[in-house]
Amino acid sequence: MNTNDLTHHKERMQSIYELVETASVEKCPEKDEEYTLRLRD
Q1: What pLDDT is stored for residue 15 in this prediction?
Q2: Which of 23, 18, 19, 10 is nearest to 34 (CA)?
Q3: Fewest beta carbons less than 10 Å away: which of 1, 7, 15, 32?
């Protein structure tokens, strides 16, 4: 498994976590901002 595959897997996992944590956005706006920036990168 090369670095590129690992990065791609990580991005997919972050997308899933973002969906799961959408309900907590109001509690942690800063955390959500970090997720959004990472997903756009």
Answers
A1: 85
A2: 18
A3: 1
Q: What's the domain range around 12?
A: 3-40
pLDDT in tens, 6-40: 888 888 888 888 777 765 555 555 666 666 666 66
DSSP 1-41: --HHHHHHHHHHHHHHHHHHHGGGTTT-HHHHHHHHHHHH-
The tally of domains found in the chain comes to 1
Contacts of 31 (CB under 8 A, 6+ apart): 21, 24
Task: Give the integer Cα–Cα distance in Å for 1 and 20.
Answer: 27
